[in-house]
Amino acid sequence: xxxxxxxxxxxxxxxxxxxxxxxxxxxxxxxxxxxxxxxxxxxxxxxxxxxxxxxxxxxxxxxxxxxxxxxxxxxxxxxxxxxxxxxxxxxxxxxxxxxxxxxxxxxxxxxxxxxxxxxxxxxxxxxxxxxxxxxxxxxxxxxxxxxxxxxx
Length: 152
Ligand SMILES: [Zn+2]
Fold this sequence. Notes:
This protein is an alpha+beta fold. It has one domain. It has seven helices and five strands, in the order H-H-H-H-E-E-E-E-H-H-E-H. It has a five-stranded mixed β-sheet. The radius of gyration is 16 Å and the shape is globular. The site of zinc ion has 6 residues, from helix 6.
């Protein structure tokens, strides 16, 4: 399941802080000269780093189907950064790297992981992983071995 238009709009507006840029990205589904110029205007060097890191398969969407008495499905998102795969809560604009750089939270300044993630989200280039499991232990073991396999 991909996120609907309204959800994408909320996420991108929150991360980029610019609703018209968010709308433009979602409508055109591409990163063109206008987008590049705006990102550099808004984020400076951070914008350049973000542009370098999107479209490379670093933005990931995990679909977890937990089989049991009732079937439940959970989605979560991550971004593979230089030093680790960080969990991302797109609706609240939180990235796991904030635990290392907590000033980003108080400054409400998005890290490049979040900006690259929002670009991947806009152009539909999140990489999907799906797990069907019947207990959480299996999930954790699977995630652990898969993360070892895809280390850069
Ligand atoms: Zn981050």
